[in-house]
Structures are given as C-alpha cells and as structure tokens.
Amino acid sequence: MNLMMDAAKHILGRSISNQYGATIGRIVGILTDVRSQVTSVEVELGNGQFLNCPSSRLVVDERGIKLLDDWKLEADNLRTEFELAVKRMQALSDLHRQGDIQPEIYEDFHRNHDSNLNELETRRENLTKKLSLVNAELDHQIRELEMFLATNKMQLASGEIDPQAYKIAVDSIENGLDRAFSAKRDIEQISINIASLRRSSADRRLQQSSMSDIVLETNALNTGKLLPVKFTGTSSL
User: Residue 43: enclosing H or E segment and its boundaries?
Assistant: First the structure.
C-alpha cells in the first residue's frame, strides 16, 4: 500500500492486527523516503520484541490497520506479474507474425520475456514450498489448540478450574481456531490459483493464440479475402 507521511502519521502509536483480526502489537515508528512516502513501519510485538514491516504489507482503512502475511502479498504480486508477462508475450508474437516488428528486435525481446517467465516459474515453486510449510505450522497449531480445548473441558467437568476462567480461555482458543482455519482456507485457494501460473500453461496459451491466428488466416484464404501485406523496406526509383 502506498502511504504518504501526511496520512500515515495518524497510525503512530496505534495497534495493528494480522489479516485475520488478531492484534499483534502497535506501531512505534515510521520510515519515509525523500518524497515523504512511507517505506516501512516498526511494530512492537506483544512479547516486547520489534518487527520492521514494509509498507506494501500494510492495509489502512476505517476498520483499522492490518499487516498482510508475506505469502499472500507474494501470491498477489506473482499473479499480476505472470498475467502481464503472458499478455506481453502474446502481443510480441502477434506483432512478429504480422510483420510489424523487425526479426532481430523480436528475438531480443523474446529472450528477455522468456527469461522473465522462467524467473516467475522459480518464484512460483518457492512460494508453493512456503505455503506448504505455513500449512503444516497451522495444522500443528490447530492440533495443539484442540488438545487444550479438550483439556479445559475435562478440567471444568472435574472441578479443577472455575467456569469464569474456563470461558475466558475457551473464547481465546476458539478465536484462535477460527483464525487458523481461515488461514488454511486462504492457503488452499491461493495454492489452487498459483498452480495455474506454471510456465507450461503460459506456453499453451501462447500456442493456442498462434493456432487461432493460423485458423483465421486459413479461413480468409479459403473465402478469397485479401490478407494485409506488410512492407519491410523502401524502394528507390
């Protein structure tokens, strides 16, 4: 999120939560660049430690201040960059087939965009591994919370803890479970989404686009329509 200091100065000292509503600390510092654009904020965590967060992970609205998980931001950026890369490759191929771009320029651009797609594929693979690790951590957290939830119920039934303490503890555990299950659902959906961002799927889309153009040209020839002629040079009298 792009924040200017004039707007961001009001968040200093305020609490900040994660994207699932759990308070993680408060903002104690704001860094800006020479244009007064916020680059990062310093967050004091609940355990007294500090965390520096890039402004791109911040969401500030009427509901408060939230810090997006880095894997969600990575997934959003990856999808945007992948779609743009494929569109550019398609446009480049179209220009080449239509004779609107010099062959040597086409080859140069094609190598650059091809390298970019390979880099995006590597990032997709790394993100997939990261999501798998986060999902495993959430599974462990859920098992742990469910164990303590069952333990609290047993201790309440046996008279070892009082009902008021039980309610406070159970409310916190159930909120934690809700957040963990919400995160797992998000990870599952994101994993499905980024699975479609494979390099092979980009190649298929480009191939399908090329085949569509060939079909259109064939149909035009069969119907006797004249195709546009591209002039790649000039002649002298």
Answer: strand 38-45
What is the per-residue pLDDT for 156?
96
Question: CB neighbours (10 Å) of residue 11?
Answer: 19
Structurally, the chain folds into a number of domains equal to 2
Residue 215 domain boundaries = 72-219
Domain-located, residue 228: no
Q: Could you tell me the pTM of the whole model?
A: 0.75
Residues 119-147 have pLDDT tens digits of 999 999 999 999 999 999 999 999 999 99
Same domain, 99 and 37: no
DSSP string, 83-98: HHHHHHHHHHHHHHHT
Question: Are residues 38 and 114 located together in one domain of the fold?
Answer: no
Q: Is 82 exposed, middle or buried (0-12, 13-18, 19+ CB in 10 A)?
A: buried
